[in-house]
Amino acid sequence: MTRTDRLRETRPTRTVRTAPKRTALISGAGVAGPALAFWLNRHGFTVTVVEKAGTFRGGGHPVDVRGTALDVVRRMGILPRLRDMHIDLRRLTFLDGDGGEVASVAPHTVTGGVAGRDLEVRRGDLTAALYTTVRDDVEFLFDDSVDTLHQTGHGVDVTFRGGGSRTFDMVFGADGLHSRTRELLFGPEGRFHRYLGYCFAGFTMRNTFGLSHELLMWNTPGRAAALYAVEDEDAVHALLTFTHPEPPSDAFRDPEARRNLVASVFADAGWKVPAMLAALNDADDLFFDTVGQIRMPRWSSGRVALVGDAAYAPSFLTGQGSSLALVGAYMLAGSLADRDHTAGFAAYEHTTREFVTLNQDQVGKGDATLFPTTARALEQRNDMLRDIEATPSAAKGRPAHSALTLPDFTPRP
Ligand SMILES: Cc1cc2nc3c(=O)[nH]c(=O)nc-3n(C[C@H](O)[C@H](O)[C@H](O)COP(=O)(O)OP(=O)(O)OC[C@H]3O[C@@H](n4cnc5c(N)ncnc54)[C@H](O)[C@@H]3O)c2cc1C
């Protein structure tokens, strides 16, 4: 062995190697998916997003972005764009069973939001803004979904419904409340779904009511009908919500059973409800679901982690679904910036779970206001609304919405 050989054996070579980029697959291009894609890309990952829908759907129901989540969209550079899309909801008017006005209040006084700071945008506008920000840096596969996941010591082997298979360093489930990734990883949804005792039917209908920038909410005990006019548009968002002791399994299997159930619950209702039921019959965008939360003891297993509604849907009663999805995406990607998947996923849970739980626990505060279930609860709610109307105060926002201060994550060199 020559001296040079010996030196080669004992000294490290000085060749500088850059670590290969880690690869990530994200299932779902709603709110959490594109936000996670943005931040993983920033932290040096090569990202693919697979979405079962063929394309983006614009419009959709309005969602809120509040508190800590505002800092996420600011750091992504899309806050000004979202401000332009802000729905300026001016009045929230509560009605009794006969359609008589109970109270008309500024929306933030009951939602816990902060007027002038919080955002309310159409869900489709939010997802489009997120998508536009990342589409040039990330691979999107539309009209496809994950069929199987198989974890090995060095990656996750994925097969796709559309055919083909690939291996990724990590996989993320951002596929919403009824997440298939969660099912593949942790088992049936029933283990984690906490039914909150309500069902709802959402759809759009013609705005024959002359409504503009306002929400009308009709209540009788255990039933609510809402008409939400986002702008001076031809269409309004209609929402029929009702208590139901158990999740109605028939209604999920059969669209006809769904319409029949809603029609029977609201059969004797007054106000605009008969017109809403007629519109529901013809609606081609009917969205029927139970109101529930996802509560999981762990959000990851091996090289696969969940984010957004897939991991911790808070239900629309909290109005925090989009905000949790945005904050969760930021925290998950940041936790992986200088860590491997094991340490990164542990850090994600450690730093984010308290914020998530605090916001999921807000549910008790929303349902009593919007959907009182007994005559007594409805009466108390109406008294409370009349007080608000008489002495409106500047809302400071709920502390839970801002309970996490975003850390600055250092990207891996
Ligand atoms: C009627 C209604 C009103 C709401 N109101 C509010 C509100 O006022 N404020 C608020 O903050 N939130 C509200 N929400 C909730 C909010 O929309 C969600 O919490 C939020 O969008 C969560 O984002 P996400 O990305 O986790 O899930 P989603 O937005 O549900 O996105 C999941 C994505 O995954 C895709 N996907 C599903 N399965 C698969 C699969 N197998 N493979 C590939 N892709 C898949 C879906 O097509 C979708 O694009 C409301 C929800 C509803 C239904």
UniProtKB/TrEMBL annotation:
List, alphabetically, the SUPFAM superfamilies matched.
Answer: FAD/NAD(P)-binding domain (SSF51905)
Q: Which residues does the UniProt record annotate as the domain FAD-binding?
A: 24-338
The family database entries (InterPro entries) matched by this protein are listed as:
FAD-bd, FAD/NAD-bd_sf, FAD_aromatic-hydroxylase
Lineage top rank: taxon: Bacteria
Q: Name one GO molecular function term.
A: monooxygenase activity
**Statement: the UniProt record of this protein carries the keyword Protein transport:** no
User: Which Pfam family is one of this chain's hits?
Assistant: FAD_binding_3
Presence of the UniProt keyword Membrane in the record: no
Where is region (Disordered) located? 391-413
Which keywords, in A-to-Z order, does the entry hold?
Monooxygenase, Oxidoreductase
Q: What is this protein called?
A: FAD-dependent monooxygenase
Q: Which organism is it from?
A: Streptomyces roseiscleroticus
